[in-house]
Amino acid sequence: MGDKGGDNHSEVTDFILVGIRVRPELHSLLFLLFLIIYGMVLFGNLSMIGIIVTDPRLNTPMYFFLGNLSIIDLSYSTVIVPKAMANILSQKKTISFAGCVAQLFLYALFMVTEAFVLAAMAYDRFIAICNPLLYTVRMSRSVCIQLLAGSYLCGWVSSILQISVTFSMSFCASRVIDHFYCDSNPIEKISCSNIFINKMVSLSLAIVIILPTIVVIVVSYMYIVSTVLKIRSSEGRKKAFSTCSSHLGVVSLLYGTVSFVYLTPPSNPELRKVASVCYILFTPMLNPLIYSLRNKDVKDAMKKVLWKKKVLL
């Protein structure tokens, strides 16, 4: 089986992405839905990046990470959504072997990187509220860049491991992936190899990468809540909590949708696809809204931009 797997692996040149199963007459409606939401993802995240880059008042560690969070959200949606939209209207619904490898690599890269960036943002809020006198030292520009670079490094390492074990399998049974993008779980289902190592690698990555980010976020907010509750004035407590509420909203949205995706029973692939749509489209669409509606600095910067446009008109 091992030798045979190697031969079959070399023969695979493309895969077929089944996509979301809907009646043929609903394909156009599904395409339109993807198009509208993806357009909102582009507009929201590009606007957020533009506001952060152009407004000097937002030249702080928190907005440095927020701008990069928008880049990550935009990136992993773009890795998947345009190809999914093309396949909705296509009869072939194929993706090349190299394209599938690249899609899974980039998806895993940005997903893991986002988890670490959110952990870095929690640490930033912890320092700002619990150790404000040390904030400029602990969260200097060089420290922020190192945290971001470390986030991408962890994403890169985990992605390399993920695609190495996933695409070292043989695909002698089928090349039809029951999903609208290349994900490790549906790819494992069409393999005729023993996937025990794959499961162990996925579990190890979850323990080594995802668990520490959750611990950093939870511990940071435990200290933040403890510190804020010691503030005597209600106005001071409200101001301190307001700087964290947006981040908490984004964290809850991310981990909620990811949990929905990976805790959905494998016996219900269509529900899993819907869960994936929530993560790939709705999360990056809502993140800029959460920060723009709940963050005073971002709202003020947006008003400034809109006022300038009004004056020019």
Overview of this protein structure:
This is Olfactory receptor. Belongs to the G-protein coupled receptor 1 family. InterPro entries: GPCR_Rhodpsn, GPCR_Rhodpsn_7TM, Olfact_rcpt. This protein is an all-alpha fold and 313 residues long. It is built from 11 helices and 3 strands; from the N terminus they run αβααβαααβααααα. It has a 3-stranded mixed beta sheet. Helix 2 (27-54) runs parallel beside helix 10 (269-294). The radius of gyration is 22 Å and the shape is globular. The chain starts with a helix and ends with a helix.
Tell me the number of strands. Answer: 3
Shape: globular
**Which band does the percent of strand residues land in?**
under 5%
* Helix run count: 11
Task: Indicate the structural class.
Answer: mainly alpha
Summarize the structure.
By secondary structure, the chain is an all-alpha fold. Helices cover about 80% and strands about 5% of the residues.
Notable traits:
313 residues; mainly alpha
Architecture blueprint of SSEs:
Elements: H1 2-11, E1 14-17, H2 27-54, H3 61-89, E2 94-96, H4 97-130, H5 135-138, H6 141-166, E3 176-177, H7 184-189, H8 196-229, H9 234-263, H10 269-294, H11 296-312
Parallel strand pairs: 1-3
Antiparallel strand pairs: 1-2
